[in-house]
Amino acid sequence: MRSYGSSKGSGSSLSEKRRYYLSLGSNLGNPAQNLVRAARSLECRGVRIKKKSSIYRTEPVGRIDQPWFTNQVIAVETVLTPWELLRLAKSIEAEMGRRPGPRHGPRPLDIDILLADRAVLKTPDLEIPHPRLSERHFILVPFAEIAPRLIHPLFRKTIRRLLGECPDRSAVVRLRSQARLTAAGAPNRKSR
Q1: How do residues 158-181 score in pLDDT, each as one tens digit?
Q2: How confident is the model at residue 14 (pLDDT cuts 50, 70, 90)?
Q3: Among 24, 37, 146, 177, which residue's beta carbon has the most beta carbons within 10 A?
Q4: Is 192 among the domain residues?
Q5: pTM for the whole thing?
């Protein structure tokens, strides 16, 4: 198991590439376009996208009095340390208009680091694996699409198994195309 220690410096050589899994989410502006822009911004800064899930329309969790989210999970490769990637993610969120607000509230963009190779770290600024990964249907559905056999380094279970055991049953609807995404409204909650 790789450890990055508790310092914010690099725990390995500068040229060593790391595999990360990121969750992208948005529910303000044009959410689908926000995810595309976020992915482009990451790539422009040297983060190579290896795999992308489908885009999903997802029911809000925590605060239901807001627009539904658009979510995606991506696998990326970069030489950045977890803290450098976190700083980059926060700068991209700010560039796209994210401002401090209520927890679980509406946002033009949210980028979360879900996993970093097999690393386990916990600092005041960053916790990997993401502490609520196993509790979030809107993360596990797209994650299981691109990495169903990946093992969670703490729970020692596959992403597919975590999805099957997830207590969260909020709606997660796969969207097949950009055209359908822009025309789609939130599914009817009563039909679940």
Answers
A1: 999 999 999 998 999 999 644 443
A2: low
A3: 24
A4: no
A5: 0.84
Q: Would 135 be classed as within a structural domain? A: yes
pLDDT of residue 6 exceeding 50, the answer is no
List, for residues 61-83, the tens digit of each pLDDT value: 888 889 999 999 999 999 999 99
Beta strands in the chain (DSSP E): 18-26, 48-52, 55-58, 69-78, 110-116, 121-122, 127-128, 172-175
- Does residue 87 lie in a domain region? yes
Which alpha helices (DSSP H) does 96-186 contain, by range?
137-146, 159-165, 178-183
Q: What is the CATH number of the domain that holds 176?
A: 3.30.70.560
Instruction: Give the domain extent around 95.
Output: 18-182
Closest CA to 138 of 105, 173, 165, 104: 173
Q: Is the Cβ–Cβ distance between 138 and 104 less than 8 Å?
A: no
Residue with structure tokens 């969260």?
A: 168
Please check whether residue 61 is in contact with residue 168, taking contact to mean a CB–CB distance below 8 angstroms. yes
